[in-house]
């Protein structure tokens, strides 16, 4: 699914109106119906709703939602942020329809008393959407502060009001929503870590915008959804043997950090690698051989850290390096030797990235197509401090092109920068995955996909989607609190099965 800017979203609306002969007001009604269905499915008959509307089309959506909720017998109150001007054409039409339905409007703004909101009230934020120009000030900022300070659950329509779809909103007043219901496709501003406190959980609602426009309009970013993941997935061949799916090598683990190697190894095998060798410090021998009997073990000369490379790296079809390895001088030497001798793309994570950050001279040695998996702190250590996540995305794209590598900037919607083409944001995953070890699972999975011959971009897109999907399946059986990275490993099979063509094979 493509991710469009606010301007492109407006064009998408206009194109849909022109090409499908649906009127603008009817498209707004469709958007309001989709939101109303979502609200009715989530909240019981006793829940009162208070809609806060601006005077643009986002406010028009809010008025239409109020009318539809009222028609279903729900208690609704509506406040309009007054600016003394006429509303948009569709806002005014919905104002007339709401008055006909007998729902009163109250004004909020300078000099007016704030409405009372009971403890059970759900607030619907329809103040500003994609038409926002600059940070909110004056009365608009006051309403946002009033609502954020009130402690009621807020559902934002299209965008949390005050959030810019295309640029950083850091510092400006922005609604802090529990859920955001957005139309057609996500917007970049909703996907970045810095927006997390405003967007809450994001839901993309289909309102029947033109698929032709989406297909023919180039976009800077794409959303890695099930369709995109399926398009990259290659089913296993019936006559396959273990050699068909590659020999992965994991350089992982250290004294006290053998768990990282175990999780990466399990994920690599569950990710489909035909053979796996783990090269780890000697102390890891009993650990790995007991917990992952399917993997072969190559001991390092050192008891506690990685200091040497296995002979003949060309034997391996993919190499993953980093989980739990530490950053000692000896391990740095081992990584340097690996970069100098590897002739295939590598997966680099965790301490391998920290070593690169301390030794930037090693970066040009990265084999083309290598995959780097920094979280934001590791990213800043590698490429310098950044003021916003928008800036990180820009740097990730520039560095991916300069290094001819793939950079996964990990987060709730992991960003995937490739050397050419669009950037990608992942759609799967949840807060249960915020636990040490989730990244090790991703490294193992990436290594497995590279070992099986997936091109690096395909491996990256498929791995982040499967990793998050496994988390989404696992959290259904667990909870956000109790989810373990090993639960992700256990559900990788179920995640893969979502991609199987029907009938299969
Ligand atoms: N046919 C369409 O175009 C559709 C539009 N839809 C809705 O329409 C929204 C976009 O509507 P609009 O383009 O009218 O824009 P908005 O309603 O998002 O915002 C425009 C209004 O906000 C005011 N405004 C903008 N920036 C401000 C600032 N910094 N401080 C104070 N006031 C500010 C403008 O003066 C104007 O009144 C979408 O987000 C979506 O909710 C949906 O109904 C789907 C269909
Ligand atoms: N709130 C979240 N929503 C979705 N995915 C998450 C969330 N928190 C963590 N993850 C995922 O879990 C992984 C964590 O990786 P990382 O920060 O390197 O942790 P570790 O220390 O376990 O290696 C990443 O792939 C990230 O995308
Ligand atoms: K809004």
Automatic annotation (TrEMBL):
Known catalytic reactions: (6R)-NADHX = (6S)-NADHX; (6S)-NADHX + ADP = AMP + phosphate + NADH + H(+); (6R)-NADPHX = (6S)-NADPHX; (6S)-NADPHX + ADP = AMP + phosphate + NADPH + H(+)
Cofactor note as given: Binds 1 potassium ion per subunit.
Residues of the YjeF N-terminal domain: 9-215
HAMAP family: NADHX_dehydratase, NADHX_epimerase
Positions of AMP binding: 410-414, 439
GO biological process, one term: metabolite repair
EC number of this enzyme: 4.2.1.136, 5.1.99.6
Name of the protein in its database record: Bifunctional NAD(P)H-hydrate repair enzyme
Superkingdom classification of source: Bacteria
Residue numbers binding (6S)-NADPHX: 57-61, 129-135, 158, 260, 324, 375, 440
Cofactor: Mg(2+); K(+)
InterPro entries tied to this protein: Carbohydrate_kinase_pred_CS, CARKD, Nnr, Ribokinase-like, YjeF_N_dom, YjeF_N_dom_sf
